[in-house]
Amino acid sequence: MKAIVKQVAAGTFIALLLMVGSVDAKNFKASSSKIAETTLQMENWMTNETIWNTNSIKIAHFVVETEPAMKLENWMKCAKAWNRNSIFIKEVEAEMELESWMTDAITWNTNYRNIAEFVVETETSMKLENWMTSAKTWNINSIFVEEVETEMELESWMTNETIWNTNSINIAELIVETEPDLKLENWMINETIWKTDGIAG
User: Fold this and answer.
1) pLDDT score of 1
2) Taking a C-beta distance cutoff of 8 angstroms, is the pair 47, 12 a contact?
3) Above 80 in pLDDT, residue 97?
């Protein structure tokens, strides 16, 4: 209801603005000619509730879908339809019987069996051999050949001062590399090279 009142008020306000504008337009005088406009009038559609309020559309415009009434059918209350156990065939197992081998002591106790059925495996006795007590077999140091190194001798170059002291080398043997003197050239003082602002755009 509040929405309807707001929409009607908004429509009325807009209509009043248009009417005031038309009145001002009538009083407006141009320098060369007079512009005359027709006055606006309030029309029915401006205040028609069915145009501005979509909720007021008649329900008759919509097609109501009707469904047929539900009926109770036979399969709905049939026990076979809902009891799935009736589908399977019941399996009948034969009764277990006590047989003679089940209570035979020979079957379950191996001590009652004839010893002649088993083959006894015999092993030869171990003997002590020479390699087992040989020191060469267990002492690996005897396998390697001992390496003998010759004694170091003092040679003349080992005590030569010119070999170990580089300061004693004759300076005349060294080649001294000389570089030419630097000179001031024109491009070094050229302002256009070093000043980027002077470059033409």
Assistant:
1) 62
2) yes
3) yes
What are the helix (H) ranges across the chain? 2-27, 49-52, 79-82, 105-108, 135-138, 161-164, 191-194
At 164, list the tokens: 């170990």
Q: What percent of the chain has pLDDT over 70?
A: 69
**Residues in Cβ contact with 22 at an 8 Å cutoff, skipping those fewer than 6 apart:** 37, 38, 39, 40
For residue 45, what is the DSSP state?
Answer: G
- 8 A C-beta contact, residue 11 and residue 46: yes
Q: What is the pLDDT of residues 98-118, one digit of tens each?
A: 888 888 887 787 665 555 566
Please state, in angstroms and as integers, the Cα–Cα distance from residue 71 to each residue in 17, 38, 64, 83, 192, following that order: 64, 69, 22, 22, 106
Question: What is the rounded distance in angstroms from the CA atom of residue 137 to the CA atom of residue 130?
Answer: 10
160-163-165-170 Cα dihedral, nearest 10 degrees: 110
* Spatial separation of the C-alpha atoms in residues 65 and 71, rounded to whole Å: 19
Q: CB-hemisphere CA count at 13 Å for 193?
A: 6
**DSSP one-letter code for 98:** -
As a whole number, the mean pLDDT across the chain is 76
Tell me: pLDDT of 3 over 80. no
Q: Which long-range contacts (CB under 8 A, 24 or more apart) does 145-150 make?
A: none
- Higher per-residue confidence, 38 vs 56: 38
